[in-house]
């Protein structure tokens, strides 16, 4: 399939080579790194993973010593693990810290001091991964210390350069290695290139067999799933269809009838099916449920609510049409479509619902009250859906893209567009594939412990469409 045309980040291209690079270095200007992204057959990490254990309390990993449990998960995911920082040698591909036993204020300093020398040795596009516990209310100091891990993670994310990222995985009560395996492999891998400074909660699942099982077929984990992606004629939706198909799903792509030509190209490229449908049409829920009902059989369903529009104005200038159209596409349609799929009994065993929210919905954004309302609404929708789907091993989550290079963000005025790119820790916009990889990961059986959450794909920024 021909690559979709997208706006180029000329500044980033300029400062990556020759005189442009020298000039930017001299002037102290941002020098966005070329991020390492998924490539078939490429190793998980660019160098060995150092596993450290910090904390005066007990680790959450009941099997063997703490470092051992994390080390074996990483080894299974394809990493070469070290338990001590070698005096010298290869640059590290990752440093992974088991901080689930951090309960005492002093443990935070100990963690920082242990992390420092390892961070100095990180290779470009490497990973810092902290593993902690969801703060509870039984031990106030332990809760405070576990929350402290978030401050370290988000700060390290801002300090790292050369495409390296930092994320925190937090185990809630009873969750262990089975639920952690999938999220750990994702944040370690190049698939999470634009996921930075995030806290991902990993819950215990009665369906953790799914997670264990998924590890043994991680090449095409979506084999046997049918995925429907709305707004898939271009941009993030098209990339999502491509990654879901690469991971083994049979993909049904949906977009407005006016985009039928591009939609057919997406469908052909992924050997899937096109369904021309305006998601706001009165009969859209029934038509989608009927279409999927005929195809699903015993397979599990993945629904990606990606179709979205912007109609920006300051709140004082937002007219009824701008409010109504944005809320209809971005929020009412995902609600109605999901409801119809639940009623038709199509969101059974192991189903996945993934909403596409936005950092604007989380942080607010000047000129986007309508859009932010709709995107915060998507976060509320998945939170409320999660417990309903959990009983059957299903999950509901959202991704919140920051600034992603698509036709939508190409409409942003040039100065704001530069700001959107450079204010991220990774100093650049993401690509549609970055959102797509995160959606696909949430759709996989191994992410069964991640539910009711919003995972930002924003390079650690809070500006975006
Ligand atoms: N690009 C970004 O930086 C960014 C940031 C945050 C969130 N998002 C969200 O990601 C999603 C995809 O964004 P994108 O940048 O790829 O946008 P895009 O404008 O390139 O693509 C959106 C697609 O949705 C389709 N669509 C719109 N209304 C529809 C309807 N009523 N029925 C069916 N399809 C419809 C469009 O035809 C288009 O193909 C949107 O929900 C958007 O709000 C994007």
From TrEMBL:
NCBIfam families: PRK08261.1
Family note: Belongs to the short-chain dehydrogenases/reductases (SDR) family.
Transmembrane intervals: none
Organism: Quadrisphaera granulorum
PANTHER family named among the record's database cross-references: 3-OXOACYL-[ACYL-CARRIER-PROTEIN] REDUCTASE [NADH], SHORT-CHAIN DEHYDROGENASES/REDUCTASES FAMILY MEMBER
Listed GO MF terms: oxidoreductase activity, acting on the CH-OH group of donors, NAD or NADP as acceptor
Gene3D superfamilies associated with the record: NAD(P)-binding Rossmann-like Domain
Ketoreductase domain ranges (all copies): 225-406
Name listed for the protein in its UniProt record: 3-oxoacyl-[acyl-carrier protein] reductase
SMART domains xrefs: PKS_KR
InterPro entries for the chain: KR_dom, NAD(P)-bd_dom_sf, Sc_DH/Rdtase_CS, SDR_fam
